[in-house]
Structures are given as structure tokens and as C-alpha cells.
Amino acid sequence: MIQGNPYAKYANNKVSTATPAELTLMLYEGAIKFCNMAMKDMETGEQGNAIANIQKARKIIVELQATLDFKYPVAKDFDLVYTYIFNQMVEVTTKQNQEALEDVLVQLRELRDMWRQIMKQPRKPE
Predict the structure, then answer these.
(1) Element of type H or E holding 19
(2) Phi, psi (5° rounding) for residue 17?
(3) Tens digits of per-residue pLDDT, 41-70?
(4) What's the sign of the alpha-carbon dihedral 88, 32, 64, 21?
(5) How would you classify residue 3: left for phi > 0, otherwise alpha for psi between -120 and 50, otherwise beta?
(6) Nearest to 59 by CA among 91, 82, 81
(7) Between vectors from CA 62 to CA 78 and to CA 100, what angle results, nearest 5°?
(8) How far apart are CA 8 and CA 41, in angstroms?
(9) For the whole model, what pTM was predicted?
(10) Taking a C-beta distance cutoff of 8 angstroms, is the pair 96, 42 a contact?
């Protein structure tokens, strides 16, 4: 399927050549995209689609949480934030809580923007 679709080939190449930092940024952007889609679905009454999109975003949060390296103290802080976001997403799907989804979007955008700033900083040799 990738061979016949130039966009899919480009996207696959982009992921396979990305640095770990770039992959993390892509995950944040993907979670934001799915939450935005879920927000539109909720506004139009498409609850099934909203739940499906929130589930996709939750999988991304699980992946972000699974890749935390706890040898760095900041990982504990990220773990708490990811747990909070995940729990808010559960509330979105169980209670159709649009305010919780808005909170999730704020949190994800802040994380993405912070990550972009981190990526701009020069790396120190280890």
C-alpha cells in the first residue's frame, strides 16, 4: 500500500529517519490531532467517532509514558502529567465531558510547545 501512495511513503520515510526528539514531537502532534478530531466529533454528535479518536490519542499517551527513562528525575514529572492526561481522556469517553477534552488539549499543546523549545537548545556532551 505504501508503494502506491506517495504521501504514505513520505510519512513512513519521515518517521523512519526521525530522531527520538522528533518522534516525541510527532507523537504530541498526533495526540493533538486526534483530540481536535474528537472535539469536532463531539460538537457534531458523532460520539462513536469521538471515542475512537480519543482512544487513538490515549494510545499515544501510553506510548509516551512507556518510553520514559527514569534515570532522569524529570521522567517522574512527565509520568504524572501523562497519567493525568490519560485519566482526563477516560473521563471524556465515559462522561462525554467536553471540558475535560479542552483541558487535555491545553496540556498537550503546552507539552508540545515545551518540547519544541527543548529541541532548540544545544545538546551538552555526555
Answers:
(1) none
(2) -105, 0
(3) 999 999 999 999 999 999 999 999 999 999
(4) negative
(5) alpha
(6) 82
(7) 75
(8) 25
(9) 0.86
(10) yes
* Side chain identity, residue 52: A
Cell readout for 68 is 520514559
Q: Write out the three cell numbers for 47.
A: 460520539
Grid coordinates of 58:
490515549
Q: For 76, what's the count of Cα atoms within 13 Å in the CB-facing half-sphere? A: 3
Cα–Cα distances (Å) from 60 to 15, 44, 63, 121, in that order, read: 15, 24, 5, 25
Could you write out the DSSP letters of every residue in 78-108?
HHHHHHHHHHHHHHHHHH--HHHHHHHHHHH
Instruction: Pick the closest to residue 53 from 69, 72, 68, 32 (CA basis).
Output: 32
